[in-house]
Design a protein that fits this description.
40% of the residues lie in helices and 17% in strands. The protein is built from 6 helices and 4 strands, in the order ααβββαβααα. Strands 1-2-3-4 form a 4-stranded mixed beta sheet, with helices on both faces. Strand 2 and strand 3 form a beta hairpin. Helix 2 crosses helix 5. It is globular, with a radius of gyration of 21 Å.
Length: 151
């Protein structure tokens, strides 16, 4: 017997059932992954293999925004800024976006597209270096060692 919405009973996908409802940010992120700019593609080629053991995601939804690149472990967002980001209205929107992300515990790193085109390896190395650096330094690590019996 084949149950409604379960396909043909042969393990094939494509059975009936309700369509999955997604947040609009997820659909937009998927579209943006298919239409990345040349600097974004070049940078993704450097970051996609988890350099230094640090994993990155591309075009990832963060709140109501889509981050060009996102490192969940470091809560680091990397934004690639093209020529449009120099326009005053765009600059105001970028500032508001950065404030929102910072207020929610994310670090934002903005990189010019021209810099990526000039030396993508150096840009990727600086991103990985920032992602590897902890957000907060442990005060216990900089103080004196504990006395015997206080460990």
């Amino acid at each position: 017997m084949i149950l409604p919405g379960t396909g043909r009973g042969t393990g094939e996908a494509g059975g009936g059932g309700a369509r999955q409802i997604r947040r609009p940010e997820v659909s937009l992120a998927r579209k943006l992954r298919r239409t990345m700019t040349l600097p974004e593609v070049m940078l993704w080629q450097q970051l996609r293999g988890a350099p230094g053991g640090i994993k990155f995601r591309r075009q990832h939804p963060v709140g109501c925004y889509i981050a060009d690149f996102f490192c969940p472990k470091a809560r680091l967002i990397v934004e690639v800024d093209g020529a449009l980001h120099g326009i005053e209205t765009r600059s105001i929107r970028d500032t508001a976006r950065d404030r929102y992300l910072n207020d929610n515990g994310y670090r934002v790193m903005r990189i010019g597209a021209a810099g990526i085109l000039r030396d993508v390896e150096a840009v990727a190395a600086s991103i990985v270096s920032l992602a590897a650096a902890p957000l907060h330094h442990s005060p216990a690590a900089s103080g004196p060692p504990p006395r015997a019996g206080e460990e």
